[in-house]
Amino acid sequence: MLSPNELHPPGQPPSQPRVPLAPLLSLSTFAAPRLPRPACVLDAGAVRLVTSGRIAIALALREMGVGAGDEVLVPAYHSMSMIPPVLSLGAHPVFYKVGADAALDLDDVASKLTAATRAIMVTSYFGIPQDLARIRAFCDLHGLLMLEDCAHCFFGEHGGRPVGSWGDYAIASSMKFFPIYEGGALVSARHALTTGRLSSAGRGFEAKAALNALERSFAYGRLPLVKALLWLPLRLKSALWNMIKRRAPAGAPALTPSSSDSSYDFDPRWLDKQSSRFSRFVVRRASHARIVAQRRANYRFLELACASLPLCRPLFAALPPGACPWLFPLVVEQPEKLFRRLHNAGVPMTRFAEALWPGVDAGVCANSVHLSRHIIAFPCHQALLPEELAWMSGAIREALTA
After folding, report:
1. Domain range for residue 68?
2. Would you say 291 and 283 are in contact if contact means Cβ atoms under 8 Å apart?
3. Within a domain: residue 83?
4. pLDDT > 90: what percent of the chain?
5. Residue 9 falls within a domain, yes or no?
6. 188, 221, 240 - which closes a domain
7. What does the pLDDT look like over 36-62, one tens digit per residue?
8. pTM, whole model, 2 decimals?
9. Is the terminal CB of the chain with fewer CB neighbours within 10 Å at N or C?
């Protein structure tokens, strides 16, 4: 296995991060350690596996009966991809405040309730569940439908129940936790899903979803024997995609959803499409116990590595028992300076909610603006090799102490 520096020689910013930002397929993906099976959102109730979390949001709101003129409460600290599904139904997003630790501000939510309020989205950031029991009680008291946003929180539990089971509906983003190119989930613990049978987006979609997931792994030196066996299909891939596009009818959707390429776009033509066969296989067969155990261990490694560093602190004081982190979020005092240093070193990072929906400013929620600007989050996924994790923590330390 090549070291990160051998994969991307130092001296100039690499074309891709030296350490993978997202999970990769490897021989260990399906390894099953002797650990109890962890709770996950798929345990919460009826499930539909779709192509992205934003598609699942639109389906959940549709299941709730949200329509023109309704108001949907959305956290001011958010991914912009959460908003177009609301607008697509003719509803209006109303942004509520979060605390300095991203906890939902129920007092502010209560102040936002009107006769038009139909539902609230509750986001468990970076894999750490909100106080879901308290929020559920609030929703029951006010007759408010609760959409539990588990996009960052595929695994975990709260109050002895799996994440996703507290909302009327829940959504998840499986592509954040599994080595796949696309994937999301719609779940309901309280209602039968009226969303009918979903169909495949076609052979081009099925092939691209599998090959792109494999190529991401090959780019970081994983599965070399598989790469050798697939050298011809991979060389012919561009020609294959061009042929499929030429044969596609005018106005047909892209081969894969825009969410797979980190776009905020929302295309309703994906509402009746299911996740690819490849992605569904990986979600069902990958070792859930290993994913949770390794992510928790990697999170703690980064937590300890950053404990004594200046000008930063973890967003959360501790990793709660049973929680499975998406990323390791670090609150930093000089974000732009640090980001440039880390980017030039090839460190993978996510700045969740760096761009907020137009009009969401400090007057709406000062904490959301601060978090959007000052959090830099680092991968802690299960595919990180020990040497990659050590290199990344060393690069973070160097950037913060330079």
Report:
1. 41-188
2. no
3. yes
4. 81
5. no
6. 188
7. 889 999 999 999 999 999 999 999 999
8. 0.92
9. C
